[in-house]
Every structure is written in C-alpha cells, then in structure tokens.
C-alpha cells in the first residue's frame, strides 16, 4: 500500500506515549488523574438536553440536515448581537461547523494554495498549524512569549513575510497560554491585515471562561474586522456540549461563502437535534454559563493555591480552562517533566513543547477534573517528591 506523503508531517508523539502509560497504570489499579486533554466534564444545562431529546424523539429529524435551519441562523444572529454587540447577516455571514475543530481543519483549503505562507501563533492549539499544513501551507510562527504577556508582536513579523502571507490565525483568550489580548492588539491586527491583504481567523472558543470580574468580547466588534476576516466560536466549553460538535464561523461573507461551499462537498450539515440544542443553548437562560465559569474559577484557585503550598508557584490564569506555567527549574525539558508527573504521581499534563517550539519549558494543566480529584492530584505530586530540587552530588 502507498500512502500520502502529507501524513508524514503528523506524528503521534507524546500523546500516544502518555496514553500508553495511562492505560498500563489503570490496568495495574494505580492512580491516574488526567489533566491533559481539554474535555469538559461539566454537563449541559437541563433545558439544552431537553431540547435535544425532544428533537431526537421526532422520527422526521433523521434526514440529512444539508443546511443550517433558519431558526439556528436567527439564533446565532441574536446571540452575537446580545452577547458581543456584533451585527451578522444570517444568510451570508454565518456557517455552522461540526465543532470548531472541523472548521479550523478545513478552512485553509479554501484560502491557501500549496506553498502559501500562513502566520500561526507559537505555542498554539494544534489544529491552527495542522489545518494549514494539510492544505500545503508554509507556517511562519509568531512567538507568544511571557515577557510580552503572551501577546503576538505583529511588528516583529518581517515585512517580506507579511507581504507573502495570505492567512493569519490568532486566538485570545488563548489556549494554551491562557492570555487575553488588549483592545489595541485587535486594532493593530486589523490594520496589519489590511496593509498586507491577509485574511484573519480569530478563534473565540474561550470568551466566556474569563475570571476575576473581567470580560472578553469578539474580534468582530472592532471596526473593520468583518472586512478582513472571520471569527470561530464553539459551544463545547461554554455550554458543556463538546460531544455534540457544535461550532460556528461568522463574519466576512466571502470567507463564509467559500467555507460553506467546501463543506457542502464534505458533509451534509449538522444533525437537526444538535441544531435545536444549539438554539436552546444560545437563546435560553445564560445562568448555566455563569455557573460553568464559577466552577472553573474555583478549580483554578484550588490548583494554583494547592501547588503553591507544596512549592510550585504556578501562574494563575485570567481566562480559559487551563493553567500554563513554567516547569520546575530542575527540569530542562517539558516532556521529561510530564513523564515524571505521570510515572511518579499518576497525574497527566501536556508538555508545552506539544504546542510548538516556544512551548518548551512550559506545561499545560487542564481544569477538567472535579475539586476532589484536583486535591488528590496535588497530594500525589507532593508525595512523589518531583517538585523537590535534587540534592547536589557531593564528592
Ligand atoms: C482554542 C480552541 N479552539 C477550538 C477548539 C475545538 O473546539 P470544538 O469542540 O468546537 O471543536 C478547542 C478545543 O479544545 C480549543 O481549545
């Protein structure tokens, strides 16, 4: 059998190794607390499940959906107006996605040709790089460094790179760094995109998971944004609907039209009961969003305070469902630290290097376990001794 060379750029890497160790530990009845993958464990609100179940009980709802229902498009329009103060035309500026991951994986196929330059953050959520790579793009990494509060420095992108680039992907509140961007960043981004004729994709998956009385908005709320790009949004984390795969691409009508056209050749639309669940989520009571945010905020505080007490001063995130922090100083490689965390403490974390070269030296912990499990994780790490600086060898 012969297979496509394009697959050679995707490795299983560290995740497979971690999963193998996890499986073995579970087989041996040993402790495993998985803080690696960002799968939310907070269920959707009752009214969302009810809308889904009622629709799933209707035998007429098992046809191909093909298109987004008008009621869904209207719901997204009013959600964007109410939540972000952004006007959207339901006919031309909204496209549903089978999870925003699906859209992020496919959209590059509509924008870039083989060899085209794509600007991606480093570190970044992996599909930001994988989508363009599948389309044959050349990546140019834009570092997100602690000394710049993890904000991309657009002025550091060389003029010749900016001139060649066709697409830029950005996302704040950011996975994995957890950073939020100031308004000035979005204004500069729009200016930069206009100047160099670059399409912008802003991923807004974490706009609702923002703590300490702060609030995030939408990229599309900034003047000129819709002329240069689109925003991706997801119901996975905000409404606990990760398994239902519900996301949206909204904004520039030309970009949306091309994505819709591509998708009409790939999938037959979102399962009708999921469309109903989405409508219930974004038009119903938003109390559940507030509760979800509070739950993650509490988990964040438990983990940050707990680790501080046992000698690991970790950075407190201002947003997202993650903690992004330096590995203890006596480790050089984030992969070595992640390996020790699972082998010696049974706690699975993601090494920062899995998110790009600038992620080396960092680790990501996902707040995807309940409070008791997080307390157990802190105890297990403490007991394992891996945070302790090894004693210098004496001769
Ligand atoms: C930044 C970011 N974008 C998109 C996604 C994917 O979300 P969805 O479940 O909508 O595919 C994730 C999931 O972790 C994410 O962290």
TrEMBL record:
Documented EC number(s): 2.6.1.-
The protein's name: Aminotransferase
Organism: Natranaerovirga pectinivora
Aminotransferase class I/classII large domain: residues covered: 32-380
Family in the record: Belongs to the class-I pyridoxal-phosphate-dependent aminotransferase family.
Enzyme class: transferase
Keywords: Aminotransferase, Transferase
GO function terms (MF aspect): pyridoxal phosphate binding; transaminase activity
KW Transferase (keyword) present: yes
One Pfam family recorded for the sequence: Aminotran_1_2
Known cofactor(s): pyridoxal 5'-phosphate
């Amino acid at each position: 059998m012969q297979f496509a060379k394009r697959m050679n750029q995707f490795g299983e890497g560290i995740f497979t190794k971690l999963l193998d160790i996890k499986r073995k530990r579970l087989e041996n009845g040993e402790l495993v607390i998985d803080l690696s993958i960002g799968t939310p464990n907070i269920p959707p609100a009752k009214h969302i499940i009810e809308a889904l179940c009622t629709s799933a009980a209707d035998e007429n709802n098992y046809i191909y959906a093909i298109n987004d229902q008008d009621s869904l498009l209207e719901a997204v329009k009013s959600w964007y107006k109410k939540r972000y103060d952004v006007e959207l035309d339901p006919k031309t500026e909204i496209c549903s996605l089978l999870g925003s991951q699906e859209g992020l994986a496919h959209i590059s196929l509509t924008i870039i040709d083989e060899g085209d330059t794509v600007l991606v953050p480093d570190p970044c959520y992996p599909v930001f790089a994988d989508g363009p790579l599948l389309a044959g793009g050349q990546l140019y990494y834009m570092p997100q460094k602690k000394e710049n509060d993890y904000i991309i420095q657009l002025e550091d992108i060389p003029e010749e790179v900016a001139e060649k680039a066709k697409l830029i992907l950005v996302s704040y509140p950011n996975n994995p760094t957890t950073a939020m961007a100031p308004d000035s960043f979005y204004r500069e981004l729009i200016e930069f995109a206009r100047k160099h004729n670059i399409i912008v994709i802003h991923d807004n998956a974490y706009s609702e998971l923002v703590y300490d009385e702060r609030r995030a908005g939408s990229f599309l709320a900034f003047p000129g944004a819709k002329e240069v790009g689109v925003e991706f949004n997801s119901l996975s984390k905000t409404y606990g609907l990760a398994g239902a795969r519900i996301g949206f691409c909204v904004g520039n009508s030309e970009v949306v039209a091309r994505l819709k056209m591509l998708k009409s050749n790939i999938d037959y639309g979102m399962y009708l009961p999921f469309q109903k669940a989405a409508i219930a989520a974004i038009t119903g009571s938003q109390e559940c969003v507030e509760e979800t945010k509070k739950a993650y905020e509490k988990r964040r505080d438990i983990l940050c305070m707990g680790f501080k007490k046992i000698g690991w001063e970790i950075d407190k995130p201002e947003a997202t469902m993650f903690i992004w922090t330096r590995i203890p100083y006596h480790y050089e490689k984030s992969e070595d630290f992640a390996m020790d965390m699972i082998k010696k403490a049974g706690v699975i974390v993601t090494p920062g290097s899995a998110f790009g070269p600038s992620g080396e030296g960092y680790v990501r912990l996902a707040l995807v376990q309940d409070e008791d499990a997080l307390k157990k994780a802190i105890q297990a790490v403490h007991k394992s001794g891996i945070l302790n600086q090894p004693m210098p060898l004496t001769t």
